[in-house]
Design brief:
With 223 residues, the chain is α+β, with helices and mostly antiparallel strands. Helices cover 29% and strands 26% of the residues. α2 crosses α3 (29-36) and α4 (46-56) packs across α5.
């Protein structure tokens, strides 16, 4: 993979730290570090290459072409990883930078770096089995006392079909309402329950077009 080495060489040639480059481009430092160390698939969005090109004094089209070639190589490697994950005698896990989101997304993009930048607050280096896993940073007390403001929730979109009564999920509906709640299924209805009794219980019916985005796998308390 060539892009990471190229970005590092250009950055160091201008005597910029990764933090400097992050501040000048608006990209996350941890994301740039992961890119340079080839721990993530390169960006798909050309706008990010344009930002890098402007700061690094490089042709953004050249960087983009490198990135697209590297993306194909990354995809090939991930296919091998997924194949190994399916082998019980290996049972490997995938360690990578997980995006931290400040709100429940409406959907999961094919490439996690394509989440809208305005909802990403950072990245967390973690070991996961679900290649689509993301973190949600809690910004409220709706699930207190079990889940507190500032906690990170590891969410697995790949386990939507395993959700059962009592699980905590990220869920949306056809009206654009997004919630993080404990669910109970009753016929065609989904009951959304907060842990904090100060918040109301919600009932979404079939006509509300509920869609479970992912199941909470782990609670991470950063203090």
């Amino acid at each position: 993979m060539l892009l990471g080495k190229r970005v590092r060489a250009l950055r160091e040639g201008l005597d910029l730290s990764q933090t400097d480059l992050a501040n000048k481009t608006g990209l996350h430092r941890s994301q740039l570090s992961s890119l340079e160390n080839e721990n993530m698939s390169p960006f798909q969005d050309f706008t990010k290459y344009k930002l890098l090109g402007e700061v690094l004094k490089a042709d953004p089209h050249e960087l983009w072409e490198m990135g697209q070639r590297d993306r194909e190589e990354w995809k090939a490697k991930q296919h091998l990883v997924k194949a190994n994950l399916l082998r019980p005698d290996i049972a490997k896990k995938l360690t990578r930078l997980i995006p931290i989101l400040k709100e429940v997304p409406n959907s999961i993009p094919n490439n996690l770096e394509d989440f809208p930048s305005e909802i990403i607050t950072g990245f967390y280096d973690f070991t996961v089995k679900d290649p689509k896993a993301f973190m949600y940073e809690v910004d409220g007390d709706f699930m207190a006392p079990e889940i507190k403001k500032g906690d990170l929730l590891l969410i697995y979109p790949g386990e939507v079909d395993k959700v059962k009564n009592g699980d905590i999920v990220a869920i949306t509906n056809g009206k654009g309402v997004r919630r993080l709640r404990r669910v109970t299924f009753e016929g065609d209805e989904i009951i959304l329950s907060p842990e904090n009794s100060a918040y109301p219980i919600m009932v979404w019916k079939k006509e509300d077009k509920p869609k479970i985005i992912g199941r909470v796998k782990e609670i991470i308390r950063r203090r």
